[in-house]
Sequence to fold (396 residues):
Amino acid sequence: MRNRIVIVGGGTGGTILANLLAAKLHREIVNNKVELLMISDSPFHYYKPAFMYVAFNAFFKQELTRSQQSLLRPEIKFIVDKAERFDLSQRVIHCHSGKQYPYDFLVFATGCVPWPDRIDGLAQAGDHFYQYQAARQLAQKLATIEKGRIFITVSFPETPNVPHQCGIAPIETTLMLDDYLRRRGVRKAVEIVYTYPSVSQLLRNCLFLQRPTAEALPGIFAARDIRHQRGFTLSRVDAQQKIAYSAEGEEQPFDILMATPPIRAVEAVCNTGLSEGNTGEGWLPTDHQTLQVYGQQGVYVIGDTVDLPVSKAGGSCHNQAPVIADNIVAELRLGQTVSHYDGKVQAIAQMGLQAGMPLVYDYRHDVLPTPSTKVGGMLRNGFNRGLYWATVRGLI
Ligand SMILES: Cc1cc2nc3c(=O)[nH]c(=O)nc-3n(C[C@H](O)[C@H](O)[C@H](O)COP(=O)(O)OP(=O)(O)OC[C@H]3O[C@@H](n4cnc5c(N)ncnc54)[C@H](O)[C@@H]3O)c2cc1C
Fold:
């Protein structure tokens, strides 16, 4: 009997995983013992980290887009459709087209979406760089501001110990903003204020979600005349008056509110009812080691949809994909899982427009910040402009 593996979502995690599985199961697929399907709601693949460069007019849509089919090995059947309902008891996916796809193995790889509506007034008055159109709108404001106050906020999910998307992105964009306004010659007339909420995962009153980096930040900000403030948990925005209110009882004016907004899983995932929290965010309960969804046979989750304490980042997908691939192959061949995820995430942080800082951490070790360098910046540029596409093809 033929086994069908269905990966839903053709972003970073789904694509790396599909290509790894196709390589490992090549013989079974060719001999019609295994069928490998990817269902995604878009024919295109977007390199999402480039959205933050879009906000500084340094990247445009065609540069960060590829046809999804072109990134997949030929053993993979690619279907453009939207998963609307997961019937986990019958093991069937119901799609927008009306088609139904039964599965033996299912991988959720549907990412997450910004959810500014969770905070009153944020969708009307805030800007962000986590989607292309939003980043273009912010780019227009940043390219024309002559004086005033740019106020930076970070909102965490309400599910305990789950981070926002790409932990380092608010720092990267704050430093890029400083460089960008200096280049434009308006930096002296524009105040930059970086804030962080009182609760950031397990930490309290810090400037970042891990202590060693949080402790390095005041010096980095002081050298650039960036103001910073702990304990600002965005709770409401007055779009008319342009005032941000915090849960701690403060109010702060802004000309541009550059926010890391709340996020949630996509609707069909939220509707599975599998999430353990009652926050409406929908993160799937994930076995920290095997990356299986708790309580479900042959069901895995990768990337931004997990409820793990690690960064929702491409650098997480890169390390999770081989674990899931090994476990699915082992379940098929041996009837049991064999591989464990150690929480590893790696990336090269963009520290300003030119410099970069390689970073790595896992469940047990925090990032140890090092001085950012131009070589780091070149590495990051190389990843943005080429290595990413080799990574999702499963080549590196
Ligand atoms: C501004 C920004 C900066 C970032 N910076 C970095 C960085 O520097 N380093 C880093 O490692 N990571 C970074 N990230 C995070 C990284 O992009 C994500 O963590 C990564 O893309 C997550 O991969 P994923 O496969 O979980 O989801 P995604 O890549 O978002 O893919 C989800 C896929 O699912 C599809 N889909 C959604 N719903 C459905 C449905 N119902 N049916 C079918 N298909 C569906 C989507 O179309 C998409 O193809 C950044 C992200 C942003 C936005």
